Amino acid sequence: MASEASVSPAPAIASPPAKRDFHFVRSFVAGGVAGCCAKTTIAPLDRVKILLQAQNPHYKHLGVFATLKAVPKKEGFLGLYKGNGAMMVRIFPYGAIQFMALDTYKKMLSKRMGKSGNIHWLMAGSMAGMTAVICTYPLDVVRARLAFQVKGEHRYTGIINAFQTIYLKEGGVLGFYRGLTPTLIGMAPYSGFSFFTFGTLKGLGLKHFPDDLGTPSLDNPDVIVLKAHVNMMCGGVAGAIAQTISYPLDVTRRRMQLGAVLPDSDKCVSLIKTLKYVYTTYGIKKGLYRGLSLNYIRCVPSQAVAFTVYEFMKQVLYLN
Questions:
Q1: What angle do the packed helices 43-53 and 23-41 form, to 10 degrees?
Q2: Span 248-282, pLDDT tens digits
Q3: Which residues contact 138 (CB under 8 A, 6 or more apart)?
Q4: 154-to-129, 217, 251, 310 alpha-carbon distances in Å
Q5: How many CB atoms are located within 10 Å of the residue 266 CB?
Q6: 179 with 254: CB under 8 angstroms?
Q7: Other C-beta atoms lying within 10 Å of the C-beta of residue 156
Q8: Beta partners for 223?
Q9: From CA 52, how far away is CA 45, in angstroms rounded?
Q10: Are strands 214-216 and 4-6 parallel, antiparallel or unpaired?
Q11: pLDDT tens across 39-79, in order?
Q12: Helices 292-316 and 23-41 sit at what angle, rounded to 10 degrees?
């Protein structure tokens, strides 16, 4: 996401009609590209996270790095990217909607609450994350189902077949929204604190060290944006903090999404029951926070790439 601060006051100049008319489209594209780049970077880690979170019988006795080694041996190198096709179909609109909604909510909050501040990042980030989740949740469910499959034991043959099977055998449209409640509850603090932390670090950096941490924007020399490497560090820290706060709900969401695929699916029918079941059965470290070390490894490059690519795309598409 672009991090900007004005270098010097400049006279207001009306935006060209073409740029103003297509602002939302350009913002949508910038967010979508950023999301796809970020998720492709960490796709193997995402696959392993799903396998560990849901206690896949083939890998549940292994740790993060052992699973990373075991998957290629059992399923080939491309096994690390299983479900990534569905992820790309989902993540482009997810990233696009999230970043576009963030800008929209920030402007709306600024009008209603006055001058923009860090609280705007927290509130707008939370609402943007939830908006993106609601719009793309069925794709996330399908992606999780495909990623959970192991070679030789496929329940679904592809994205289309997964959609058809879930719709016909798991209650129609409602089958695609299993786990939506914990997802929304978890997304609010995750997205909110992610953007809040990044916005706070960005503001402090550009306020106190503009010459060391900032550089003129490519599309507008009167605007300073964070340097790429600083942007990446801020994004990584923001992701790590947000993941720690929301991770138990992420585990709950995954188990509810996988539904009938799990042998203990009857224990994972609601947010409270799933949290209680995972806690009593596996505990905190091996249950609610299983795979968290992997999330720390994956969230740093993911958030770093997302923020950096989005900032670059905003400059390329004249969004500053």
A1: 70
A2: 888 887 788 777 777 777 787 788 888 888 898 88
A3: 163, 176, 177
A4: 31, 49, 22, 36
A5: 10
A6: yes
A7: 19
A8: 6
A9: 11
A10: unpaired
A11: 888 888 888 888 887 778 888 788 888 888 999 998 888 88
A12: 150
E strands present in the chain: 4-6, 214-216, 223-226
Residue percentage of the chain with pLDDT more than 70: 92
Helix-helix angle 228-258:180-208, to 10 degrees: 170
CA distances from 304 to 46, 169, 264 (A): 16, 39, 36
Structure tokens at 236: 């990584």
What residues have CB less than 8 Å from 230, skipping those under 6 apart?
205, 213
Give burial (CB, 10 Å; 0-12/13-18/19+) of 9. Answer: exposed
Please name the residue ranges forming H helices in 76-117.
84-113
How far is Cα 103 from Cα 249, in angstroms, rounded to an integer? Answer: 26
For 25, how many CA atoms within 13 A lie in the half-sphere containing its CB? 5
For 188-213, give the secondary structure using H, E and C. Answer: HHHHHHHHHHHHHHHHHHHHHCHHHH
N- to C-terminal Cα distance for the chain? 11
Residue-wise over 99-138: b if at least 16 C-beta within 10 A, else e? bbbbbbbbeebeeeeeeeeeebbbbbbbbbbbbbbebbbb
In the chain, the amino acid numbered 104 is T
Region 214-234: mean pLDDT is: 89
Q: What is the pLDDT of residue 116?
A: 64
CA atoms of 236 and 50, how far apart (whole Å) = 21
Q: What are phi and psi of 41, to 5 degrees?
A: -60, -35
Element (H, E) at 247: helix 228-258
